[in-house]
Amino acid sequence: MRILVVNTGSSSLKLRVLDGEDVVADLELDRWDDEDELDPLAGFVGDAAPVDAVGHRVVHGGPGRQGPALVTAELEEQILALASLAPLHQHRAVAGMGALRRLLPDTPQVACFDTSFHATIPPAAATYALPHAWRERWDLRRYGFHGLSHAWAVRHALEVARPPRLGNRVVSCHLGAGASLCAARAGQSLDTTMGYTPLEGLVMATRSGSVDPGLIVWLIEHGGLDAREVGRGLEHDAGLAGLSGTSGDMRDVLAARRTGDADAALAVDVYVHRLRREIAAMAAALEGVDVVAFTGGVGEHSADVRAESIAGLGFLGLVLDTEANAAATGDADISAPDSPARTVVVTAREDLEIARQVRAALTA
Q1: Catalytic pick among 114, 290, 321, 351
Q2: Is residue 137 part of a domain?
Q3: Roughly what angle, to the nearest 10 degrees, separates helices 73-81 and 90-103?
């Protein structure tokens, strides 16, 4: 089955055609605005034909969504109804569906949701200690995100570990511009660091991660900021960018730290402290850990971040091989030979996870 995988980001569009696990065509547009902008796609789709199915990454599936679904007008309406929870992504995902429907009108399309992987999180981990009426009225709970990336990393990590692990407790670390952790046992998510929105949890490139909610109330009531200003600050001006004064790209922050920049050094310290603390929290949710997997742009390419975060986790049985960590490219076990638990690098392959879900949806 040849599958066209469509990943609509907040501004970009990525297309990839898979024949099994082989990538046969690839296109990435840094800017793509709406479904009427067909010219850049038409040539790619024509050259890549034939395509048996199309799979779309969708950030938010809402409560109760536990797997992929065939794209219908009703499903598109449900995705758009969740736009307030993922305002940069939901409309664009539906626009991508519309564009591909016009280009491939007879080809089935399947929506694959980042939140679905976390539908297995138990109530104790998913429930916020908020007034009952609030939770019932607005479905306030921890949804979790990056589920397509975590699903791939959790399964593949056990294959990358050397020797392959008999245990099945995996902490997956998706570290990119956005970042989250997932605690999984036997391939099922049991906890994660992102919550109702992708703002909770780890320090990210421009997002704050978790902060005291009382601080937010204070800024609005006494700091003279309105909700829009606070939201923009937390989403776009915080995180590594706010701490370091750089773009927030980890490469820029580490480069500034090497020049002796004190703000950049503090930014990395805060990032690593939160990351190390949350890895331990995920391990606690699993009652131990067999494998920690690093994936995503930072997770795959920053040996410094991997080394500094794992350095404080020897009590969990995690010990790195310094040379293996520095040399890692692609999938790699970077553990010391005698490390009881393993640390691995997993190349992010959301496309393979989407293709797997598309096949499952169409052959069920």
Answers
A1: 114
A2: no
A3: 160
